[in-house]
Amino acid sequence: MTAHGELAELAEIASTCVRCPLSETRTTVVFGTGSADAEVMFVGEAPGFHEDQQGEPFVGAAGKLLDQLLGEIGLQRDDVYIANVLKCRPPGNRDPKPEEIEECKGYLRRQLELVDPKVVITLGNFATKLLLRRDVGITRLRGQVFPWWNRRLIPTFHPAAALRGGEQVLALMREDFALARAVIDEPAVEVTLVEAGPEQLGLFG
Ligand code: URA
To answer: Structure pTM?
Structure first.
């Protein structure tokens, strides 16, 4: 079966998931969207109110900013794949709980395997910590390219942080997106590869 077909099959399975109590409060499972052949995959935190209503990741205000930043490096939503750590909205947009992440992470792992992107961009602390397994804040991790499971991982802020933090955060996100563009365009581009150590495997380890 093609990656596209397997993703569709997994989305179907996830749509009735009851692995954690978020299944009792969600409206819709937000599995992920985009191209199964994408070179770039974004990983956010969890669906918010609008995503829960519409079943698509990043359709609210943070999503509009994500679209804008994508456009600035010549990409559209259809060119990339977008998923979240959690597929269901935590009530009131609270932080994901470790046990929710544990129950849900198999879906993300399979999405990463199937899409097999060249570059993974983690949006914010939760996705970055899960994939890189480093207890270091996003402010210190961003702006760098990590070798990760035969791919490149670029951590950046969550777009909601740029909406709160204004121009300063937005400027740093623009730098990170430009870095991603450079990595996509030229695999041999001069970037500082940071040794992440054995814990770099994160989700895959
Ligand atoms: N924030 C996220 O992390 N993901 C979404 O899909 C929407 C907002």
So the answer is: 0.92
